[in-house]
Amino acid sequence: MIMMMKMQKKKKKKKEKKKKKKKKKKKKKKKKKKEKKKKKKRRTRRRRRTRTRTRKRTRRTRSKGGSNRRRRRRRRRRRIPRGRRRRPRKRKKRSNAVLKRNQGYNIFNEAKRSSQTMHIVKVLRPIVTDIENTTSLTLR
Known about the structure:
Layout: H1 2-8, H2 59-62, H3 68-77, H4 96-102, H5 107-110, H6 115-134
Region (Disordered): 1-105
């Protein structure tokens, strides 16, 4: 009986493992470069003008600077910048003659520009007037 059992218990054959196939890497196809169409060279016909055809331009027309349409287009192109980029307002320059006329060159009138200078002037003015009052000096 035992023998029979032993007989039945046959050794199982080991299953052979299937080898995995390696995946082949696909080769990237190279893109064909498109051939650029060559531009045809334009042959400009040179016009030969005889001397008699040339019109003498008067001095008046020469100063115009291009045709009217071209000038109009040029005018249109000029954009007015907005915001910060806008050109700063031009300050009127006060000539020295105006400053010196009434008083012997007044520093304070000259320095009416930025807030910084105005602050300095605010501090200086009382000091200068005090010195002028105590001594016979004119500092302005």
